[in-house]
User: What shape does this take?
Amino acid sequence: MMSLSRIAFLTAAVLSLCTAAFAADSSDQTKKSAVTLRSGKVLEDAYVLDKKPNGVTLAYKDGCMFVRFSDMPLEFQRIFGYDAIKSARYENKLREQKKAIEKEEKERKAREDKRKADQNKRYKDSRINAQQQIVSRLEHELAEAQKRLDTMDKTISQDRDALGMSTVGSSRVSIESPWGYGGPIRSGEHNAAVTNMLMKEVNTLDAKRENQAQNVIDLQLKLEAARRTLDKMLPDDKG
Assistant: This one.
């Protein structure tokens, strides 16, 4: 029987040979070997695609994966030259790079959100400004239309008063209208020409007044609708 010391010596020798063999294989990235991870998972026909300070990328029968040195058995850590300090520094560098990328992305998104918000605000402001101009224009048109209607009402009233004076008892009455000077009417006389002229003018103005009054109503309705639209556009200051 072999002594315990001889068995231990032979075991150490075998392990040393196996380690040396895998180390030799690792220098050739196309050389395939089986790698058993600490979790117990076995990567069949594995070979190195890339090496980083914190681990290696292995291709194997079922695909490829990145394996951290901390997930490897000690013998494989030694084979690949695992340095815990270098690995920690490298992973810290990766974390810092990730933070920088996330910060840059966050700032980029904030700038993009602000650009969109400013663009939307400019668009809304331009629509509000255009609607305010519509309201102002309608207010002006309504004021002018109301003035024309008031002028018509005054002219019609004056002509109706003049018609009532076309037969008079006073010594002399002069009638003047926008159609021209009617001339004097003597006491007790009836100036048929002036009366007919005034009646024609009143009838004409009545028709025009009706159209003008409808125009005023239409403008009032348009103005009310424009103001409602503007109110909906303006921001709600409540709360």
Q: What stands out?
A: The CA atoms of residues 87 and 236 lie 58 Å apart. Residues 4-82 form a domain with the SH3 type barrels. fold (CATH 2.30.30.700). The mean pLDDT is 78. DSSP finds four helices and six strands in the chain.
